[in-house]
From TrEMBL:
PANTHER family: ADP-L-GLYCERO-D-MANNO-HEPTOSE-6-EPIMERASE, NUCLEOSIDE-DIPHOSPHATE-SUGAR EPIMERASE. This is ADP-L-glycero-D-manno-heptose-6-epimerase. InterPro entries: Epimerase_deHydtase, Heptose_epim, NAD(P)-bd_dom_sf. GO terms for biological process: carbohydrate metabolic process. Transmembrane segments: none annotated. It holds the Pfam family Epimerase. SUPFAM superfamilies: NAD(P)-binding Rossmann-fold domains. Keywords: Carbohydrate metabolism, Isomerase, NADP. It is an enzyme of class 5 (isomerase). Residues 3-232 form the NAD-dependent epimerase/dehydratase domain. GO terms for molecular function: ADP-glyceromanno-heptose 6-epimerase activity; NADP binding. Its EC number is 5.1.3.20. It comes from the Bacteria.
Length: 304
């Protein structure tokens, strides 16, 4: 089996690369290292191509000496507060167009990362046929990618599976700094015995999914029919609950320090996925709940 992973030095991509190398004959990661770091790929035995895949006329043959069976497309500008909308859209959309064109030529199945951001502030539970209402350029780029995937699937006999990740947390995200998961940020603060800072009054909730489950969803997607699927637990976790679980796992007893939320315009106060389609069509059910996910993660970080 021959595999190409885009964005493979990033958070999700590197976890996928390390996992999938066991199953692959050939495996190549491509990343422009605009955000990702080589350190995420320690222990990776495959090839690494450093290139910007949003550029026109990407010469895949120059970089690869195989035609992939699967392309896991994780590369993206993932900064939801990025100030240049035009560049955000250009980069994310044109990268995907290049991947889809390459997949037609190589007959690869494409498994690509979309986002719960496409639901905007939509009603919960969010199911795949709920109305999409992207609230920023990042989410809009994912919305357009889903449209493109549908069109390419219909017109070119391409197999294409989109995964709408909800909030992902886990190993190999620390390089993201302020853009790393809330669970990571709070763990850092609490490890230093600082009160965890969360938006007033911590009742907001998100569907938090552990990275090992996200990797598993990508594996299940290899056999899944074309379409778009939620990748989530189907369970809500309030911000206060995260603090409670971290206190338990870290052995601390720190009260939240509530701060005002400056991002009210596009902030998703609540996300919760309907996970029934992913279960029935992909056979994907998250194994980690918030307690076991945080515990596994804190151990990996060496915090417990
Ligand atoms: N982490 C989450 O909670 C989450 C939630 C929903 C969706 N997603 C999606 O999942 C995917 C992976 O997310 P992540 O958290 O690993 O992000 P990340 O920022 O850690 O990784 C993205 C990687 O893509 C690379 N990249 C960006 N533009 C590129 C380009 N033009 N050419 C080549 N490489 C490029 C970056 O250097 C980075 O290593 C993304 O598509 C993201 O939108 C992530």
């Amino acid at each position: 089996m021959d595999i190409l992973i885009t964005g493979g030095a990033g958070f999700v991509g590197s976890n996928l690369a390390i996992y999938l190398q066991k199953m692959a004959d050939n495996i190549t990661v491509v990343d422009d290292l605009s955000k990702g770091v080589y350190k995420n790929l320690e222990g990776f035995e495959g090839d690494v191509v450093v290139a910007d895949i949003s550029k026109e006329n990407m010469d895949w043959e120059h970089y690869l000496d195989f035609e992939p069976d699967y392309i896991f497309h994780q590369a993206s500008n993932t900064d939801t507060t990025y100030p240049d909308d035009k560049e955000m859209l250009r980069s994310n959309i044109e990268s995907f167009r290049n991947i889809l064109e390459f997949a037609i030529n190589s007959q690869a199945k494409v498994i690509y990362a979309s986002s719960a951001g496409v639901y905007g502030k939509g009603t919960i539970p969010m199911s795949e046929n709920s109305q999409r209402d992207p609230k920023n350029a990042y989410a809009f780029s994912k919305y357009i990618m889903e449209n493109m995937a549908r069109k390419y699937t219909e017109n070119y006999d391409l197999e294409c599976v989109g995964l709408r990740y909800f909030n992902v947390y886990g190993p190999r995200e620390s390089f993201k700094g302020k853009a790393a998961s809330m669970i990571y940020q709070l763990a850092l603060q609490m490890k230093e015995l600082k009160r965890p800072r969360i938006f007033e009054f911590g009742e907001q909730f998100r569907d938090q999914i552990y990275i090992k489950d996200v990797v598993e969803a990508n594996i299940e997607a290899m056999e899944a029919p074309s379409g778009v699927y939620n990748v989530a637990t189907g369970k809500p976790t309030s911000f206060n609950k995260i603090v409670e679980v971290l206190n338990k796992v870290l052995g601390t007893n720190l009260e939240p320090d509530y701060i005002k939320n400056p991002y009210t315009q596009f902030y998703q106060d609540q996300t919760l996925a309907d996970v029934s389609l992913a279960a029935s069509k992909m056979g994907f059910v998250a194994k980690y709940d918030i307690e076991s996910g945080i515990e596994d993660y804190m151990r990996w970080l060496g915090f417990v």
